[in-house]
Amino acid sequence: MSDRRAELADAAIVTLAREGMRGLTHRAVDRAAQVAEGSTSYYFRTREALLVGTLDRLAELTNAEITATSATDLDSVAALIEHWLTAGRDRMLARFELTLESTRRPTLRAAMHRLGGEFRAKAETVLTDAGVPDAKRRAANLVAHIDGLVFDQLAEVGPVRSRADLFDAITPLFAAAFRGDTQLSI
Fold first, then answer.
1. Which CATH number covers residue 62?
2. Which of 51, 110, 154, 185 is buried deepest, with most CB atoms within 10 A?
3. Is residue 163 in a domain?
4. Contact 12, 24 (CB under 8 A)
């Protein structure tokens, strides 16, 4: 993604997180990025292009973080989740906004499936490399559980969790994924 497109997508992420889907307009992104009016529509001609571009940027940033994190070091994973809930909060809020919007927009849905597949494939690779049987199914379950944990914290449905609490929450998930435990002891 070019520097200007990335800059505008970053502004779209912040706008989306703070204003929601209705507040995400080309003009709002121009204001957030402090660029001349019309800049966003030059790089992202349609709303659909803006949404997909924003999703691509979210995936790019998240992918870099996941790649830099050891999936077998639970403290590192807990730290990453904590980061997503604090400094990366806007990105996660924007991601969930786009996830819900994708249920109504086929182009966005296709992008969401493509990118979600990439993340599940990364988890599958880690599990396959560890010799875990049925790695594809277990990877999909692990990603879904982590997404649920992140959503729960962002929506403030459950109690606020410290890094230690996050570690405690993911430990049985990873045990189930890596060892094939059929019962989670939570």
1. 1.10.357.10
2. 51
3. yes
4. yes
What angle is formed at CA 49 by the lines to CA 45 and CA 54, rounded to 5 degrees? Answer: 125
Neighbouring CB atoms inside 10 A of 19's CB total: 14
Residue closest to 68 by CA, chosen among 57, 53, 55, 83: 83
Look at the chain and report how many structural domains it folds into: 1
Q: Could you tell me if residue 46 is inside a domain?
A: no
Taking residues 81-86, report their average pLDDT.
94
For 185, list phi and psi in degrees, rounded to 5.
-100, 100
Place of tokens 């459950």: 158
In the three-class reduction of DSSP (H, G, I as helix; E, B as strand; rest coil), residue 63 is classed as helix
CA distance 171 to 186: 9
Judge contact between 29 and 101, C-beta under 8 A: no
Closest to 98 measured CA to CA, from 47, 149, 141: 47
**Domain that residue 118 falls in:** 52-179
